[in-house]
Amino acid sequence: MSGDTVNMHGGRYNDGIVHHHYAPAPALTPEQAEALAVVRGLAAALRGQLPEADREALDEGLAGLGEAAAGSDRRRTLFAIAGIAATVGALGQPLLDSVRAALELFGG
């Protein structure tokens, strides 16, 4: 089945159809993809050294860095990961640095 399906039940002056089109997130550049890979790798290395609650928050954040993530969602997720990295001090500094580098590539 293709095309629009419209069901109307009563009413008057039912003119027009609102189309909600989904626009996929733009493709990542190779540099952006590499930066996210570094963030994921450093986060995985840090994960085992975090308390359970922080591990869960980190896992949720990493799930939000997928290819389909919209720009603002990806930035929000990177900021959340940076916050986790910052709370563990020197142990999280490499992850924090990689998040900052990734944010620069995403215009942040």
Structural notes for this entry:
This protein is an all-alpha fold and 108 residues long. It has helices at 30-47, 52-63, 71-87, 93-105. α1 packs antiparallel against α4. The radius of gyration is 20 Å and the shape is elongated.
Specify the structural class.
Answer: mainly alpha
The run of helices and strands is HHHH
Output the number of helix runs: 4
Unreliable residue runs:
none
Mean pLDDT: 84
* Distance separating the two termini: 43 Å
Taking the sheet with the most strands, its summary is: none
How much helix is in the residues?
55-70%
Task: Tell me the total number of β-strands.
Answer: 0
- Molecular shape: elongated
Q: Compute the gyration radius: what is it?
A: 20 Å
The share of residues in extended strands comes to: under 5%
Write a concise synopsis of the structure shown:
This protein is an all-alpha fold and 108 residues long.
Name some characteristics of this structure.
108 residues, elongated, 56% helix, mainly alpha
SSE topology sketch:
Layout: H1 30-47, H2 52-63, H3 71-87, H4 93-105
